[in-house]
Amino acid sequence: MxxxxxxxxxxxxxxxxxxLMGNPNSGKTSLFNALTGSRQRVGNYPGVTVExxxxxxxxxDQRITIRDLPGTYSLSPYSPEExxxxxxxxxxxxxxxxxxVDSMILRRSFTFLLQVMQMESSVVLCLNMxxxxxxAGQELDRSALQELLGIPVVETSAKHGKGIDELxxxxxxxxxxxxxxxxxxxxxAIGPLRIVxxxxxxxxxxxxxxxxxxxxxxxxxxxxxxxxxxRISDRIxxxxxxxxxxxxxFLAVMYAMFxxxxxxxxxxxxxxxxxxxxxxxxxxxxxxxxxGSPLLSLLVDGIIAGVGxxxxxxxxxxxxxxxxxxxxDTGYLARAAYISDRVLSRFGLHGKSFLPLITGFGCSxxxxxxxxxxxxxxxxxxxxxxxxxxxxxxxxxxxxxxxPALFPKSLQAPMMWGVYVGGIVLAxxxxxxxxxxxxxxxxxxxxxxxxxxxxxxxxxxxxxxxDRSLSYLRKAGTVILAIxxxxxxxxxxxxxxxxxxxxxxxxxxxxxxxxxxxLRAAEALEYSAMGRLGKFLQPAFAPLxxxxxxxxxxxxxxAAKEVFVSQMSIVYALGEEGSPGDLGDKLRANxxxxxxxxxxxxxxxxxxxxxxxxxxxxxTASWKWAWLQFGGLTxxxxxxxxxxxxxxxxxx
Length: 652
Ligand SMILES: Nc1nc2c(ncn2[C@@H]2O[C@H](COP(=O)(O)OP(=O)(O)OP(=O)(O)O)[C@@H](O)[C@H]2O)c(=O)[nH]1
Ligand SMILES: [Mg+2]
Prior knowledge:
Layout: H1 4-12, E1 15-22, H2 28-36, E2 53-59, E3 62-68, H3 80-91, E4 96-102, H4 106-119, E5 123-128, H5 130-135, E6 139-140, H6 142-149, E7 153-155, H7 164-176, H8 184-190, H9 199-220, E8 221-223, H10 231-240, H11 246-286, H12 294-311, H13 314-330, H14 332-346, H15 354-362, H16 364-370, H17 377-386, H18 396-406, H19 409-436, H20 458-492, H21 500-506, H22 513-527, H23 529-541, H24 548-556, H25 563-575, H26 583-590, H27 593-605, H28 610-620, H29 623-651
Parallel strand pairs: 1-3, 1-4, 4-5, 5-7
Antiparallel strand pairs: 2-3, 6-8
Bound molecules: guanosine-5'-triphosphate (GTP) and magnesium ion (MG).
């Protein structure tokens, strides 16, 4: 318990700190967002928040900073997140704690609440999901609860923004007035505070909390929730989480999601593409100065081509994230995790690896961070290691560029599907290998609470899409823009003093205006820093069928995967000046489908991007794993691409 002196000190200042604690999936982050107007990620899946986040609001002349924490089931010092939660409490850097509970799960929630109250005097009980409780016909006597607990009790429905003002008032009240203390009956049930640590005492202790929780429920529950309140969820689960049908249904759902990403995205993608092309034309036509000006080229061939080439795929990215968040917010992903545990465990992975892996389809970075919910260190490392094999959103533009350009219509959908499935299959194989060698160890049981199905609000979904689009646009406008400019410079300088074509023309050879221009551009590119680097490295990639341009673009993909697309756009905008057709046509003219396959394999498997390298380093706290992942996957990519290219050549 906090001393009175500390309490005094805190109330004197006008800045207060509050912690949000509670079981996973009880709605802490939703409340955090509603209280502070933030947009942190929520999801209908236990363990969405893996890092604390802070934000604040003002109440009269006070500033209140609130910290959202990862969910925890208890305060026993067993699993890592429970230890973190305990530490957070004992650090005492706060003036009050809000315990958020799912009103439909009272017993476990109250047990947790009582544990917190044992360590902390200024507590607010927030009965969240009040809407669901009402719908189920459950009714609690709030004043009885307040009486028994001696703390403010508030009902909220975070998702619908209900009860937020009352919660704010209750927090202020808890900070200002010391708690009254537990009702003697509860205190007696819990028993004297013992030194936690020895297993026996802990169990005994937990039983005390459970008994006290029962008293709370007995004396405050006016109407019990109807038996059938979860009937709809159960009915859906009877089909969706079925032992036999579950897996095929899951595969069909994933197929539908990717199908939607590609098919619905096509039309808007074409609009943006024509828009970008038009903009390039417009700028060129309106350019007041010399049409050969390097500044114009930087603008059109560097910036508009480079950034535009990436922007084109915004609709697909939005659709992919729409699909992923729908699956998560409805609660389906938790079922899918449960279904796939059987498959994953056969490959040395874990049911808890599922959400991180799926998140990896969006981006490896949040995927790797989400592995924090995996308690077993070996399971976690194996998951992190194979995560970059999940084809991320930044690689989507690459596939959408290469596949339609290099493969006949009938092969495009299977190719796209093959990229995703291929990544998954390879991930499973590598995980199995790792668990048999570096990460040897027995299986760990998989426990995941299945949340009820919930209908996501259109507003939530819309906001998520807006956030996603903004972050994609931000990346295009910063990282991709900067790299595009850099790439343009590297592809333009140094410049040759004269061109072979001109010498030939002077000697009497005849070329059309357009041919000559094209040859000059090609020669300039070859002479540039990028051309030289590509030429220097090209022999190493010759067994993969790469030309110098592909080599440099693949290197660029290490900075950020989208850069591959920017770089191809820039190189072909510069190098083939005046030649007709869009980028796809140019790729078709230059590369065979077999080179396409080799390229796709190399980009799917190899060189996880710089940011992935950094996050793996951070999350594993070792450079060894980061470099092992980077080097191992790149070497494997090289071997597989070489194999595919050469076997293919023998066969064709
Ligand atoms: N019906 C209803 N749903 C809610 C309410 N509050 C949150 N939810 C939903 O419950 C799910 C979990 O919400 P989160 O805010 O992510 O929960 P959390 O406690 O932060 O979860 P973790 O970070 O995983 O510990 C989401 O699908 C929310 O939309 C509520 O008051 N009513
Ligand atoms: Mg959360």
